[in-house]
Specification:
mainly alpha; 5 helices; 56% helix
């Protein structure tokens, strides 16, 4: 062992831990206990002065993970869903009426397609599915399909009576009693209209409940 080289006398021995720097070499101020470093001022860089302390950036909390969502957002989404459903019902009802007038035939499965479009539009406008969107879509679909059947039955009644030589004046904007008379006549003539009304409302409610993402896959 005596033949091994020895460290210089003015340097610590091999494997020895150098003493910690004196707190006096750091900025003045109260020092954190048992550390020798000033609190919240940073730690010295290698061979340089202490670096300024930078607190970590706060991570924003997204909606639904502890953050409070304004209550107005729910009302706004319901209004958007209602407007989207009404728009889809209006466009779909006009297209259905135009096809009936053009072909002279009732294409009943179009009532189901109308319900699907209304349910999809309601969930798209509100940004979500669920029971509330389902009820909204079903209510709009019921009003839309009944109004569509009024104008479809009105057209077919006028066309049928005029072919027999009668002159008929059925208002475009009827009263409640006039609408009931036309709808009653049409539904008694074509009982399948009851079925397709139910299918329209059910399709709208289904797509409204499932939401946009699921509705795109048609229930898969």
């Amino acid at each position: 062992m005596s033949d091994l080289p020895q460290p210089p006398s003015d340097q610590p021995g091999w494997g020895a831990i150098p003493p910690p720097p004196s707190p006096a070499s750091y900025p003045s101020g109260p020092y954190a206990p048992n550390t020798g470093y000033p609190p919240n001022t940073g730690y010295p860089s290698a061979g340089g002065p202490a670096q300024p302390y930078r607190p970590p950036m706060a991570t924003p909390i997204p909606d639904g993970m502890g953050a409070t969502v304004p209550s107005t957002r729910l009302g706004t989404s319901v209004v958007r869903g209602l407007l989207a459903a009404l728009g889809a019902g209006l466009v779909g009802g006009l297209m259905w009426y135009g096809i009936v007038v053009t072909t002279g035939r009732q294409i009943y499965y179009l009532a189901v397609i109308l319900g699907l479009c209304i349910g999809y539009a309601a969930s798209w406008g509100s940004g979500r599915g669920g029971a509330g969107t389902m009820l909204l879509a079903a209510a709009v679909a019921l009003v839309t399909v009944v109004a569509s059947y009024y104008y479809i039955d009105r057209h077919l009644i006028i066309e049928g009576l005029e072919s027999l030589g009668y002159s008929v004046d059925i208002p475009l904007l009827p009263s409640v009693s006039e609408a009931k008379q036309i709808l009653r006549a049409g539904f008694e003539e074509e009982g399948s209209q009851y079925l397709f009304c139910v299918l329209c409302v059910a399709a709208a409610g289904l797509f409204g409940f499932k939401g946009v993402q699921t509705s795109r896959r048609f229930g898969r």
